[in-house]
Write the structure tokens for this entry.
Amino acid sequence: MFNRNKTLKTFLSMHFIIVMLLIFMPLFMIIAFSFNEATFPGFPWSGFTLEWYKKLFSDEKMMSAIANSVIVGISTAALSTLTGLAGAISLSKSKRIIDKFTRIVSFMPPLIPFILSGIAFVTFLNYFPLPKSLFSIIIFQSVLFFPISLGVITLKINELPAGLRNVSKNLGSTYPGYFFKVLLPLLKNTLIGVALLMFVLSWDEFVISWFVSGFQETIPIRVWSLLKSSITPKINALGTISFIISLILLIVAQRYLFKNKKRGKNETQNY
Amino acid sequence: MEWETKEKVFFGVPFRAWVFLFFLLPLVTLIVISFFKFQNYQIVPAFTLSNYAEVFSSEFYLKSLGNSVWLAIGASSLVILLAYPFSFYVSFFIKEKYQNFLLMLTVLPLFTNFILRAFAWRIFFSEKGLLNKAITSMGIVGSSQDFLFNPFIIIFGISTYLLPFAIFIFYSSISNISREKLKAAEDLGAKNKSLFSRIVLPASKNSIILVFIISFIVSMGDFIIVTLMGGSSVYTMSLQILDVLQVNNIPLAAAMGVVLLLIFVIPLIIAIYLQREDNKDV
């Protein structure tokens, strides 16, 4: 097929290398500069140091931004996963017009330019008794990301054997019994995977948080205000650390989502 | 209570309340406010088209709008040109067992801070940056070149940001194309060219449209890369909106936002229309 054509192969492998470089160059630079002695992140390399990591950990504002990001990340993960679950349970397969409408609207948030949702949310906050705080960041980040959890959980629910509800019902289960002992255990891995993914997305979300945050700072907001005033390699240290944290979370998330796929088959066979 | 009723009460109602209160209501508020007046630094409820008139009568705004659109088109096209051949290469030239690993590798950089990544590019292209060091020491040019603060670097910045997403979408589409079908076509004497134009391209057409739309939306709304790498050399609609927000003129900002939204809705409708036509063929 295509891979027998030598010219095509040479051309495409060159292209492959260039694209890989484009993808990895910023990552390499951030990690390298976080260990570089020079204050201005430039070339050539001037010596290895852990100074920036020390400075990072003694910077109170940065530390509180990290703490805020953790709080926001965990809460957003929980809220957007729960709303996604509620939506997946109540919307699937319904053919009423209002449900079709809700379904379409539910997938819109990530499709609107973020700056626009940002203005909409901040305007809304002027009229709505909700303070601009970490709490509002959590609400609106969840609004932004729940469509993704909704999509993934809906897919998983549709994969479940169709007669599950009726079987539980006929065997005398109550609805909470079915929900907590049948549905939730089957969805457990998907939900954990989705929640971790939501955390990672929240961790790097800037535009919406920036609009609705008031005076609270998360990591991206802190980075943005630092970059606008002064340049310090501290932020590269921060970038490296958040990279490592997100990477670990992603690997864990992927394991759960993947394990789930393998298991799903066996479980279906049992019915 | 019936199970359906219980589901409705415990999940359906809160979910609808959530979507309507925190998403639909803010959006509607924004649209309504775009018809309000802004007088003496106060928002006055009214019904006026003057905000829209201001957007469309000011040459400055129209030019920014134009800039936003062509930057978005540029970035979306570049990201397709970079990502499509990449995904094509991965799915046809790389052994299957390494494909997933490579794909995981491409999303890695997404997990640093994206503002920092844009800033890293800025350092790379700066006067004393790696690129200038490299080309002057190799003697390609005599003195340092100014790469930053022009439209092309913005397009470059946005497309490198979008690359991993696009690669993922293209890969999942291209790798799903049936190999048996391609083999069969080849056995019947089809050349690579027609294999590509008559099987691969039509089968991945929707993914190209999807990537274009996503890239378009992201670049229309971006103000980070435009500021960091473009240095406001090109004024876009999002920068204008931020300026207007500085003086709290929310009605005008809302009107600008609605215009931005309409511009993005048009390609979306075209895409949906194309999709429909597509389904008719089948």
User: Anything to note?
Assistant: Chain A touches chain B through 79 residues (CB under 8 Å). Chain A has a mean pLDDT of 85. The radius of gyration of chain A is 23 Å.
